[in-house]
Amino acid sequence: METTRMGFVEAVKTCLKKSFVFTGRARRSEFWWWTLFSFIIGLAVSFVADEIPDDNLLLTLLFTFGMLAFCIYLGIANFAVSTRRLHDIGRSGWWYGVTLIFGVVWTVWMIVKMIGLVGGMDLDHVDVESDAFALTLLKEMWDVILIPYILYIAYSILLLVWYCKDSQPGANKYGENPKGVVE
Length: 183
Fold this sequence. Notes:
The chain is mostly helical. It has five helices and no strands. The longest helix has 34 residues, at 131-164. The model has no long low-confidence stretch (mean pLDDT 87).
C-alpha cells in the first residue's frame, strides 16, 4: 500500500481550488489542515478588527462588508470540504447539511418564540435592560435553548468521530480513494 502525504500548503491550495466542489472525496489531512487554516484566518481577522478605530465609519463598513463576503466564501468552502470528507468514509454530505438546516430552524424557532414572549408582555411597565427581564426571558425559553443545544453538541460529536475516521480503502460510490490506496 502506497500513500502520499498532504501537507498544510497543499491542503489549503486543494481546498481553495475545490471551494465549490461538493463531489469526490477529501482525506483527513486535507480536512484538518483546512480547519486549522480557517481557525488561523479567524484569529487574524479578529485581531485586525480590534485595531480598526471606532470613529472611522468608512473603514469599519468596508471591513465589515469585506469580511461578510469572505465569511460566506469560507463557509461554502468549509461545507464543501466537510461534504467531501464525509464522502471519503462512505457517508453522504447531507450528514453535514443537517447541521446547517438545524441551525436555521433553531434560530427561526428562537426568534418566533422570543417575539411571542415579548409581544405578550406589558413593556410599558418593564425595564427591558434589567437583569430580571433577561432572566424572565431565559426561564421562558430554556426548552428552546437548552434541549436543541444538547442535541447539537451530541450530533457535533458524532461528526467529529466521523471526521477522524480513516478513508475507506479503494473506490466508493463517491470516487477514488484520495490517498491512492487500493484494496
